[in-house]
Amino acid sequence: MLKGVSASTGIAIGKALILKELNYNIQKNNVENAEKEKEKLNLAIDRAKEQLEKTIKSTKEKLGEEKSKIFEAHLLMLDDPEFTGAIISKIEGDKINSEYAVKTTSDELAMIFESLDDAYMRERAADIRDISKRLIKILNGDESLSIEDIDQQCIIIANDLTPSDTAQINKDLVLGFGTQIGGVTSHSAIIARSIGIPAVLGVGEDIKTIKENDILILDGDNGNIIVNPAEDVLIQYREKMQEQRKFRETLLKFKEQESITLDNKKVEVVSNIGSIDDAENALKNGAEGIGLFRTEFLYMSKDNLPTEQEQFQAYKEVLEKLNNKPVIIRTLDIGGDKKLTYLPIGEELNPFLGYRAIRLCLDRKDIFKTQLRALLRASVYGNLKIMFPMISNIQELREAKEVLEECKAELRKEKIEFKNDVQVGIMIEIPSAAVSSDILAKEVDFFSIGTNDLIQYTIAVDRMNERVSYLYDFFNPAVLKLIKMVIENGHKEGKYVGMCGEMAGNKYLIPLLLGMGLDEFSMSASSILNARRIISESNYKECIKIVDKVMALSTSTEIKEYLMSISK
Predict the structure, then answer these.
(1) Residues 6+ positions from 109 with CB-CB distance below 8 Å
(2) pLDDT on residue 133
(3) 163-246: CATH homologous superfamily?
(4) Which of 272-281, 342-351, 411-420 comes out lowest in average pLDDT?
(5) Which of 74, 205, 264, 374 is 20 to 30 Å from 168 at the Cα level?
(6) DSSP 8-state assignment for residue 79
(7) What positions carry a catalytic annotation?
(8) Which top CATH class is 23-139?
């Protein structure tokens, strides 16, 4: 059994198809005619653009507009003088062959990205290598098998899968995939979750022991790959797959139901989304609203700041899709692991503790006001709530609200319609905000607990660091105490409290959070129906007793074991 990272859940059983990495032995050759070599490169660039146009079209059809933007960025890079211009300069200046110029240029750029601290920017190195491989393959006249040529069911095994690879996957034939490198933030992981196939990434060198046509069990639930399993293990996993299929079918009856306990405690089960396309998927899975709309995609899918009108159109579309169901839209949360090439922040020793989110917005009020004006204008088209991220103290909250009031005054003066009573809330994701939530609750309409960062900051653990990631723990007693405190402080002031971190969809923690009094559970669309099932089969009074029991336990291991033992 090989151990990796669970990047997309589910189980697949099938034969291994080893996707061999392009490994041309590219030699440096001197050329007499640099112009001829440049012409060869330009023809390859034109061919790569043709391929990318087809990939963009098929990706839009299969995965939606948002996922196709990955390849639109690749297309832009082929016109970027920083990339293609550097290749041409090498051909002209060093009088070398185009293949070697492509390889050395992309290696240099990729190494720069891979040396950066944050995970998002490191993943961009994969884009550069993806484009480089495409060009080198064309320059070498290679017509070897690619993912789109697969004609039988298989489980793909590779060193890594590029965005181009994953976008070509036919889920009827590719049952799942495992890779030597990669993590949950990579493009391949995102696309695997989008198309609904299991993926186990970051297996390491051991993955090379897998041979072509080996029988594999890909366990995306636990991050395992079992190679040539015994017959009894195969039978066990086939039964698990059958149980999962039946279970998914039984969940459909919860789609139109309210999220209400056996003793009539009503809560809301809503969805986290990152794009307009995600909103449609949330509704298909029975979401009662949107608990977190991450607006970063509007900024990260472009090569300049989105205009007020562009943002207005996007927010309006989501609000109209939700048909007056609540939509919490988080203001820009750039920085840390999310950066914009056109908005240089500069290198920071601790980017997660640095210039990001509300701190950036309060410093760059021009960017902040553009977004707030767009949000206010869109508010007339649905049930909008505005949420500020990474608030650490009451001063930041008051300053953000002042900017919002300035935007309202501007719109009134311009006679532009908006809802004056739009609710304003904050994410509780910094321990200082949790501890002072009694003060903050007096000046907001709601809280939403962002557990992904709250855990990281509370335990002082970088969840992307493999050496300490074991400390990143949903069941940590200190984290649970902070969450309980936030809910209680919110309720004392009559404010509702939601959760938009990954914890909200954890099946073992839902009864505990319910007992703590959490009003809203926001999660990935695929988790909604099971969460609603757990809530509908729970007794609120019994859940309160679970809280008392958990708060008396000392370690996360004890808490996890107890919650698993009573899991429905």
Answers:
(1) 82, 83, 86, 125, 128
(2) 84
(3) Phosphohistidine domain (3.50.30.10)
(4) 342-351
(5) 205
(6) T
(7) 187, 500
(8) mainly alpha
